[in-house]
Amino acid sequence: MTTTTRTDGGIDDPNDGGPGGPPPGGSGGGRSGDEPPDGGDEGLSREEADELIQEIERRRSLRGVAAVAVAVIGIAFSVFQLFLAARSYTFTVWLPTVEVAGISIAPWQVSLQLLQANAIHVAFALVLTFLLFPVSTGDGLFARNLGRVVPAASRRLGERSPVTRALEGVRAGVRWALLDPDRERVTPVDLAFVAVAFLSAFYFMTEFSEIQNMRVFGVDSGRPVTEVYAFLQPLLGGVPFISEYSYAMLLGVAGVLLVLEGTRRTLGLPLMIIVATFIVYARWGYLISSGTPFIGLLAIPELTWPDIVQNLWYNTENGVFGIPVTVSVSFIYIFILFGSFLEMSGAGQWFIDLAYALTGGRKGGPAKASILASGFMGTISGSSIANTVTTGAFTIPLMKRSGYSPEFSGAVESSASSGGQILPPVMGAAAFLMVQYTATPFADIIIIATIPAIVFFFGVWVMVHLKAVQEGIGGVSGEDTVGLWNHLKRGWFYLVPIGLLLYYLIVERLSVSRSAWFTLVALVGLIALVSAYSEETRLRLLAVFAAIVGVEFASHALAGVNVGGLLAGSGGAGLPPREAAAALLAGIEWYAMLAGALTLLSKPDLDASLLDLNPSVRDTAETIGDRTGRDLGDSQPFKLGAFVVTSMEQGARTAVPVVVAVAAAGIIPGVISVSGLGPNLTSLLLALSGGSIVVMLLVTAVSSIILGMGMPTTVTYIILISMLATPLVEFGIPLLAAHLFILYFGVIADITPPVAVAAYAASGVAKSDPFETGVKAFSLSLNKAIVPFAFVLAPGIVLLREKANAADLPLRERYRVIGFEDLAELSYSVPEILVPVVGVFLGVIALGATVIGTLYARVGRVARGAFALSSLLLMAPGLLSESVFDVLGLVGVTVSVDALLLDLTLRGAGLALFALLALRNRRKADLEGNEGAGTSAEPDPTEVASGADSA
Asked: Is the whole model's pTM more than 0.70, yes or no?
């Protein structure tokens, strides 16, 4: 494919013309992925998409030794996490038992404590942060002012002045040590930070007994650095500062500062300032007078720096290595790695093509396909920016060519991509934090999150359909799509890992980490089989697989162990056939992996007919081949190995900002915990809300959006649940509903102007106005802002029910996830589940008519206002009624009504209003059609009021 690429790394002007972006169909059928579709809108190439992501995330583009170092460290990070997922905190690093020069090398038994594992996890992330993200590119306040010093001195003192020359030397030294304007080199300061991060992890590994003693005697009880490393005594022994403080204290301070610096680099200065402010507050918050109205509730006891450092750095209950990092170690990283393996296997493009095969030919098909594709990928990627750019590179050009405006096209893509974080089964990273903070099984989190997520995507679907009706936009041509059946035959195996994941989580009820581990191993085994399959090798592959299974079954049946155990001499009594088969089945994915690898080794030049690996894998294989002087690009065994290592490296790169984010965000609940601020903060918020649940919900929503602008959803979630979850529960809101409420508004921040990072990324692909793209994205996601109010006031929408003995239980434990017996109880399920759920689905249709201004025909201003009212009554009538009661309460009027009856009455009124408006709009469309002056596209008479396309 011919692609226009600007040498300055920017985006081509939309008026330049040129070939369009790659269409779907690259994995088989339809138009080839290398052939540009007809049309004038140019999409982004993969290289340009990568550059756009790096520009938004401010990552370096490293080459040479630095790139190799990042790859090695990233792979080591992933290997470490795979060991933890497979064996928990006690595992064996396999090494051959040999003796070299009197030194014995043997398998290494590793047994980690939680604090040690968390410290290594964060250290890996910090090291990669300092290698991947520059300390400064020269566009900051400090760098700009530094650049003005020398010219100013030159003007006043002359160029030959010693002062001017000294300042020139200082400037040159600072630039050499700090600046990386092209984001292409690792600076000396980065290497120094890497060394400190390594020393921190090394101290946790080698001096853990001292750390345990510090929990009793304090961080000052540790030894100074000259005692820990005796060789430093001659150099540093006489330095007062070094001998005054313990090495643990120095490392703790340095570690917290490194986390703050890593936060600044990866997530921006605002979050670093917020976290640093909490640390300052922990030290000097005692200066706040407890007698000051309202603000006095923020007064805390006096804490010393050693107290703060010990609680923030040497603690797994809170602080840097607290619950958020524990969740990252146990759950988040392994799922990021799973998503990386799935993406590198070629699943991303296959899911995009699947979306087009399902919906591409329908009215507004490109936009509907974008919703499906972004939902598919967003749920496993967890990054709205990366999902927007990678998926949008294919979907946005087709949306533009079909008739959608560039702003609307970017808005659809960014809105759907941000919604991926609320779509089960994976839901990005925040869902795993919710598991830990609420002590709820992940399967239950999936259950409660499903209906709201479906409502959101349905709402966006309705809006793009109504926009297509309004603008007369059809589907994509048949040559730009693939046949559904042929596409499924070519890539059905991509659906297997997701199905296995759901099976392990929901049916087997395994832990999240074990489920992800088993699914990841199964995915690699499946890819190995598929890569070795062709018409030529299928019999050979089957024979090799059968031989491996047969030998393993015989080993279990005769000796009770696998072949490896038998060769090691650990065999014993054989197992009955049924138990031998069960033991064999437990390791079937490993046998599949081995069979695929052996078959490939016997036919290395095989062309895999089904598998189309991600281009990054092919690039890695070709790059290594070029450097080694060998043609490895066509070697299928080597490409399989490249797939594994590339997936591990990319997984580490993706995880770095997430790990730094949770480490930094953990400081805030750590400060709240150690200072005892929590109860006072709850009292303050309850007092400020005046006892109004509506005010409390609005404060939470606005805080989530403001705090979440430009920040990862995980950070927003951690900070806000620490401060706002308890006050919400105090109002009687179910704990899980309160957490989900905060999560939803944290996600909305990604597409809320003026920051709207996902919308900004989409505008780079769509070549549209960023602010207008953000406004349209927020409008398309408006139902995501209303649905949370709906389910906190009507918990049946998220399938939560109050327990029978709720009055005797703590507030956090009064609700449970419903079961089948609850659904069978019609007196409960119909009014409290069925009616609210149907109401929110109808409500998003009314909301679509309000936002787009079209249902069957154009909707006038008055009608749009009426549709908005019907939408509110259908989705969240409690929001309206509670607001009215609050107003009446202000004038001293108390109203007592049956809450359920009032809810049903208001929803009924909303339904009647919606039906009346829809009927009138349909008649208007019929009249306009009869008069030959209808809208730009006459609605299909088979379409229902929902706007769902039946084509």
From this structure: yes
